[in-house]
Amino acid sequence: MSNQRYAPEFKEEAVRNTLYVRTMSFILAVLSCCLTSPAHASEPTPSAQSTVLAWLNVVDAGHYDRSWTDTSAAFQAKVSQTKWITLAGKARKPLGPLKRRELLGAAYEDELPRAGTGDYIIFQFQSKFARKPKAVETVTVVLENGAWRIAGYFVRNG
């Protein structure tokens, strides 16, 4: 007799749980579609990665003037070539020659602070220099007129 008294409550709870599970399944299905779209792919496009690696080779060689010419229009509007040569030299010369660089990862973004909206990929590398055995280099590229251009560079202790 006591089971009959609780049966409607259990039935209500079972219906609530079923609705909860169905709702969560729907939300997860929607999220999985969004997270697997090209805008959130885990692998960077080969052209973006080759642009970054080629640009880093120019910087590694100390050709900071040439590296500036491969930066985005927004970068060039904010940082003159003369200023870039000075900043890049101050950041890189104390590190010494590059010994090793390994890609840690890349992240797609459609908006960056102080940069606005666009198609960005942020690359991070674990790097080893002659006088800096642990460093993390961050290079940001932006899709500009169908080509990937350097939008930012930063090196820190890592």
How much helix, percentage-wise, in residues? 40-55%
Strand order of the largest sheet: 1-2-3-4
Major β-sheet, in short? 4 strands, antiparallel
CA gyration radius, whole angstroms = 25 Å
DSSP summary: helix tally:
5
Question: How is this structure best described in words?
Answer:
This protein is of the alpha+beta class. Helices cover 46% and strands 34% of the residues. The chain has helices spanning 2-35, 46-60, 64-69, 73-78, 81-92, and strands spanning 98-112, 116-129, 132-144, 147-157. The protein has a four-stranded antiparallel β-sheet with strand order 1-2-3-4. Mean pLDDT is 79; it is low at 14-42.
Q: What are the SSEs and their pairings?
A:
Elements: H1 2-35, H2 46-60, H3 64-69, H4 73-78, H5 81-92, E1 98-112, E2 116-129, E3 132-144, E4 147-157
Antiparallel strand pairs: 1-2, 2-3, 3-4
Summed up:
46% of the residues lie in helices and 34% in strands.
List the keywords.
4-stranded antiparallel sheet, 158 residues, alpha+beta
